[in-house]
Design the sequence.
């Protein structure tokens, strides 16, 4: 994995590393916005639109993240009929997911607050 | 371009991705997700840009989805092993208990089989066969867990 990132500038590799951690949090945040649940395609669209492309990812790479969050029991899934034909999965936040998301929000805010203080 | 041809391009991408992922139920689930994502994305593009060549649109879908290598790499990143919270003493107790229960079940099943068939099934033979099956089942399960 690191070998693939060889050749990137320090700044570029740093951004990739930071984005990895933030992405899971951002996915939880988007799912939380949708009480009725949201499908993978919708999450990809919102990630791009709500973050002005900052957290835009190759859409296929979102699914391993969604599966990980399901394994951690932070997301639940149910299926619905899609307009394009086959059924699709709709992701909703579990109770534990909601708790973890709120906890992470506190940590994220705290981190940014401290970093901002470093710049003063 | 027909639906079949679009389906063929999607199937090809799925096949290439599946070759890079372990053979497991989770992978099948992931591939289903990718397939319905591609269908959805393609359908939205066709609705918005109906005059464009479908081949360009499906290529765009694949580009936005990412290469099989990129998807497999993210899959690898998310496969962090969960820490085993049991300490080594607990592990020994756990595995010993499992072994004792497995042997008890095998002996009981062999005795029942031997009694019901009035000795047609030899008790010792049944014990050996059932133990062999239990070891085989344990081996297959271990391999599946390792792959997943």
Sequence:
């Amino acid at each position: 994995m690191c070998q693939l990132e060889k050749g990137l500038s320090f700044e570029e590799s740093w951004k990739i590393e930071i984005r990895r951690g933030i992405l899971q949090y951002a996915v939880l945040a988007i799912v939380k916005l949708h009480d009725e649940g949201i499908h993978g395609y919708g999450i990809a669209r919102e990630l791009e639109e709500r973050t002005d492309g900052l957290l835009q990812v190759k859409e296929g790479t979102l699914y391993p993240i969604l599966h990980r969050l399901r394994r951690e029991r932070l997301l639940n899934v149910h299926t619905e009929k899609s307009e394009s034909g086959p059924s699709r999965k709709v992701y909703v936040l579990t109770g534990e997911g909601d708790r973890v998301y709120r906890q992470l929000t506190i940590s994220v805010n705290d981190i940014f607050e401290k970093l901002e203080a470093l710049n003063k | 371009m027909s639906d079949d041809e679009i389906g063929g391009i999607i199937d090809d991408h799925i096949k290439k991705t599946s070759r890079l992922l372990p053979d497991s139920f989770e992978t099948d689930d992931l591939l289903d997700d990718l397939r319905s994502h591609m269908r959805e994305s393609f359908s939205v593009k066709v609705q918005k840009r109906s005059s464009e060549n479908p081949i360009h649109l499906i290529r765009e879908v694949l580009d936005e989805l990412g290469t099989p290598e990129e998807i497999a790499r993210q899959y690898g990143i998310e496969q962090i092993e969960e820490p085993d919270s049991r300490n080594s003493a607990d592990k020994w107790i756990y595995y010993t208990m499992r072994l004792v229960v497995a042997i008890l079940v095998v002996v009981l099943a062999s005795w029942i089989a031997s009694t019901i068939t009035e000795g047609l099934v030899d008790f010792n033979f049944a014990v050996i066969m059932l133990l062999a099956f239990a070891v085989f089942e344990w081996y297959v399960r271990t391999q599946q867990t390792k792959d997943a």
